[in-house]
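Newbie here. two chains, one complex. Structure please?
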Amino acid sequence: MRKPVSHALQRCLLLTALAILSLPCQAVAQEKTPPPPKLKVGDVAPDFKLQYFTGSDLKDVTLNDYKGKKNIVLAFYIFAFTGG
Amino acid sequence: MKHFQQNLQKLEAADTQVLGVSMDSPFANKAFADSIGVTFPLLSDWGGEVTHNYGLYVDKYKAARRVNFLIGKDGKILEEQIDNEAIDPTKIVAACERHKLKN
């Protein structure tokens, strides 16, 4: 008759298997939820000076240009010619 | 960017200027704007200095993360949308309209 595997050994094997299986899941979860940006609601937005092409020349835009005049939506996107 | 274009009238009526930002060249961004019918400026952060300053540079794809900031007239951040949440700007549009009513 085969000797039954002890309960302690069974539990140990099960826990090891679970630990191994959960490793890739943790890695995926971390990749999907990177930490939020350091700038939070209520913070002062850092000033910037950037250019855009009007079709005939390059024009400077700074955040300061709009201070006290207009709200700004600053929409960072990943690459031109991609969705969103 | 298309979604902001679709809401541009509402945003402008709420005293809000929309500015897109990416690390593409100004000329690529102009071509992109024309191809999707965007009429607001798409600014070029060539080199990524502003993207870094805002803490949005993603090493993996050498570009900015998708994030929308609504910045008030006092220069403070009023609203923030991150990653996939930033594709649909409804929250920003609603926030602009709320602030317009307040002021």
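Moderator note: The mean pLDDT of chain B is 93. Chain B has one domain: 2-102. Thread marked as resolved.
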